[in-house]
């Protein structure tokens, strides 16, 4: 459980910067309405060894909600990644040089892949922490 908590602590501080990059990078409708909505950061998973049934049920709902919103975000992000990838593939060099739009698209593509991978890692870490809490709650040995 301790290692899982440490992994969450390492990933969570990145959340705000990821959110800012995600909103800026996937924003195709204006500054106030990003296309892909980064889900709100999930709250802490309770310690299953000391948590009440109500706390565990609330954690279950929190994790399920986050995973559902995270999957929707990843689907949207994947569409945006595919769109940018097609744009990169269809861009031709101008006088042997990459046009600025291609450079911008390549940079955005790299950022979106990083965000995608970070969200997947966070979702996996959150699920592992919850599963460990459930084991502890039920008194199961590792």
Short description, anyone?
The protein is mostly helical and 142 residues long. 70% of the residues lie in helices and 0% in strands.
Biggest beta sheet attributes: none
Unreliable residue runs: 1-18, 20-33
What average pLDDT do the residues reach? Answer: 80
The total number of structural domains is 1
> How many β-strand runs?
0
SSE arrangement, N to C = HHHH
State the oligomer.
single chain
Derived from helix and strand composition plus strand pairing, the structural class reads mainly alpha
Radius of gyration: 19 Å
Number of helices: 4
- Give the percentage of residues in beta strands: under 5%
What percent of the residues sit in helical stretches (DSSP H or I)? 55-70%
Shape descriptor reads rod-shaped
Q: Distance between the terminal alpha carbons, to the nearest Å?
A: 10 Å
Descriptive notes:
- The protein is an all-alpha fold and 142 residues long.
- The chain has helices spanning 2-11, 15-26, 53-90, 100-138.
- It is rod-shaped and about 65 Å long.
- The chain starts with a helix and ends with a helix.
Question: Topology, pairings included?
Answer:
Elements: H1 2-11, H2 15-26, H3 53-90, H4 100-138
Helix pairs in contact: 1-4, 2-4, 3-4
What structural keywords apply?
142 residues; mainly alpha; disordered N terminus
